[in-house]
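Interim report, section 4.2 (structural modelling).
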Amino acid sequence: GAGVSQSPSNKVTEKGKDVELRCDPISGHTALYWYRQSLGQGLEFLIYFQGNSAPDKSGLPSDRFSAERTGGSVSTLTIQRTQQEDSAVYLCASSLVAGVGTDTQYFGPGTRLTVL
Amino acid sequence: AQKVTQAQTEISVVEKEDVTLDCVYETRDTTYYLFWYKQPPSGELVFLIRRNSFDEQNEISGRYSWNFQKSTSSFNFTITASQVVDSAVYFCVYGSGNTGKLIFGQGTTLQVKP
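Predicted structure of the assembly:
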């Protein structure tokens, strides 16, 4: 079956612009996660959704970052007024239900964001 | 706070050699989960294994085996008779309780040369 998909695969933007990154989870998966992978910081958790609600937003690095999920499916990660330090690969994952003890997270191919 | 340490940044072996990737974690949780993920050059993270804190049985899957020892807070991963296709970055990962948050180690880059 289809895995997690993300779009765009690559995004180049200018400093100060807003960007939207999209994630389509595996069909039937109720939990959705966002992570960021950068050279300096490794792989970091950003936020996760169970259905449309976000119980844990603790990883969002600043108020320029926000995420939403509607209809319990597609999620959008928005970065406002991008900065060069936002350059990274943004990874999305989904699982059947939330909770690391209950189900495995399956990852998408990522969106590589470059801020010039 | 929980932490995962993969002390080996890069490992290079010749095909058919055995190789062990080390992972040490820190936690005060009583219930937690440990994972290994593989990230090949294509970039997509691939799930390999999940263990919970109550099950210290070693696990073997083909050429892969995992050794979980709570006494030393370690969860090491061994590849037997390595192959070029095993070349990738391997991440040891921690998760606790019912949260969705995974904490990744820094990753170990494995290069298997023909």
